[in-house]
Structures are given as C-alpha cells and as structure tokens.
Amino acid sequence: MRSVITGTGIGVPPNVVTNEALSRLMDTSDEWIRVRSGIQERRYADPGQGSTDLGVMAARNAIADAGLTPTDIDAVLFATMTPDHMLPGNGPLLQTALGLRDVPTFDIRQQCSGFLYGLELADLFLQSGRYRRVLLVGAEVHTGFMPWHLGWDTLIGQSTREITEAERAENTLTRDRTVLFGDGAGAVVIEAREGDTGLGVIRLHTDGTGAGVLTMHGASFKRRPFVSVDQIQSGETLPFMSGKEVFRSAVTLMPQVVREVCEASGIAVEELDLLLVHQANMRIIEGVQKVLGLPPEKVPHNIERWGNTTAATLPILFHECRTLGLIRPGMNLAFTALGSGLHWGAAIYRT
C-alpha cells in the first residue's frame, strides 16, 4: 500500500505585483530584485482575503481533479505560518467553507517546510489505515507582514495617493525581505493505493539551534502585550532573516537530505527525473542543483512568477509540473525544503 497524490490544485489572488511596481514604493529596481532573488512578479491578496480563502480555492480544485467530492475527504492537514487568526487555526475554517463532513483537521507550523512535513503526516495516517483520503493544503498570505500603512495599498489599486519620501525611505529598510514574498496556495489529495507508485522514503530534520536565523521577534506571547504599536513601528512584526546563514544552510542541508533519501531508496541522485525544491530564492535553487550535479532541466522553478509562497511553493510547483506535462508515469521525483526552525527534509515520490 502506497500514499498516492491523486489530485492537485492551486489558489492564487488576482493582483499581480511586478518588481517595477515595488520600485515606486522603495529604493529598488527590477534588476536589483532579479539579480538577488530571480523574482519578476508575485501575487498579493485583497484586503480581507486570508490564507484560508486561498486554501479553499486550491482544495476545491484538488478535490475535483481527483474526481472526488468534499464528502470523500477523511482528514485535513493545513500548513501555514500566516493563519487568518491566532485562534482557531485554518483547518476548521476550511472544513466549514468546503462543506466537509465532521472530519478531523490538523494545523501544522513548519513554515517553508510545512508541506513536506504534511506529506510525512499524511503518509503515516494513510499507512496506519486510520484514513483513506487526506487533503493536504499549503497556503500563505504574507501581505499581512507588509507595511501597508506606508503605501502598499497602491500596489493593488486601493489608493492613488503619492508615496512620501519618508515612507519610501522606511519601506527601503525592509526591502531585503518584502520583495521576496507572494501570496498563494496549493493543495493535494492523497489516497492509499495498491502498487509501487506514490510516496517512498521521507526524511525530516529539525535543528533548533538555528531558530534565530529566521524568526519574528514581535507579536510574541513572551511580551506584555504580545503586540504593540512600538513593535510594529520598529519592524519587529516583520520576519527577521540572516540571509547569508539561511543561504549557507539551504545549499548544504537540502543536498545532504536529498542524498539521504536517494540512498535509502536505492537510487542514485542522477537517476532523479525531477527535483522539486522549495522556491525561496533562485540563488538557493541553483545552488542546490549545482551541489547535487543535476542539469537545470531536472530542477524546475516558478519563483520568477510567484515569489516565495512558503508552505505553498511545493504544491504549486508540483501542480504546474503536472499540468505542463513534465511529470509522466514511471518517474523518480524528490521534494526538498528548508525553513525557519530550522526544519528541513526530503521525500521520494514515484509516479
């Protein structure tokens, strides 16, 4: 019995935000962003549109793609670091919106590795016989982190006022992070099936000593109050990232764990037909590809169109590879991701 992805879908907001558009709000340019990240554009959600809304869109598409109805789903896994609310989680909100039966929902928080951790949990659920069909969703609305009070609303046509020089200067202080993220969702339906296709070896790792290289200092329940105007104004409610350390960890640890799952599966790295890497930064994607010695055509990417959508990058990429015909029967695929925690891992998938 194997865990097989039988349906995929995505949910993305309509607002396309180009690098040129961002240059109207801060000291940046299309060239500056492309050289450092490979990103050309990303999507931003409308005000009031949350990660549950995008997740519902992706889930409906995935369920339909699997030839099922919502009542066929036995359990839900929702991976996000940008939930609609601090409580409850997105799982029950998605359950209600989809009209699911009284099925359990699990909210998981492994940030950029959320979808990968979700694959492990879905596989365990299915292999145990507890559930037959699991819906796994990765969805993010990062625009909640953005300083919208400093003119970001003009990017999606909510305002026509001119950005002041003071606002432009303040926006520039966080350009190393704010230019990277986009909003979006991806979902898959995973079912238990007989045969030799589906999920194979999965290896997950966590190293909490690296938690400080990618974190958010504000909006913390260690604080009194947990969020304040001072925290917002000082930028503590934006993610903090040590870029050099994240890059070093990513291009070291992801290749290591890909080799780990390949060896445990009895296949050579060069026998992989496709390697689906978390879409955090084009430099990281290319770095992983080169360390593993894989040709570029085996490491597809879409970061140039979506930016970093955190838990949504892998399901969106997998869906697009399917729809483009890049994934065919009899292929060896691998997923890999690294994110805040530090959490990282890899999984083998046989089509």
Keywords:
351 residues, alpha/beta, Peroxisomal Thiolase, Chain A, domain 1, 2 domains, five-stranded mixed sheet, four-stranded mixed sheet, 13 strands, 33% helix, globular
Describe this structure in words.
The chain is of the alpha/beta class and 351 residues long. It has 2 domains: 2-193, 3-Layer(aba) Sandwich (Peroxisomal Thiolase, Chain A, domain 1); 198-350, Thiolase/Chalcone synthase (Peroxisomal Thiolase, Chain A, domain 1, 3-Layer(aba) Sandwich). Helices cover 33% and strands 22% of the residues. It has 12 helices and 13 strands. The strands form 4 sheets. Strands 1-7-6-4-5 form a 5-stranded mixed beta sheet, with helices on both faces. Strands 8-13-12-11 form a 4-stranded mixed beta sheet, with helices on both faces. Helix 9 (243-265) runs parallel beside helix 10 (282-292). The longest helix is centred in the last third of the chain and has 23 residues, at 243-265. It is globular and about 60 Å long. The mean pLDDT is 95.
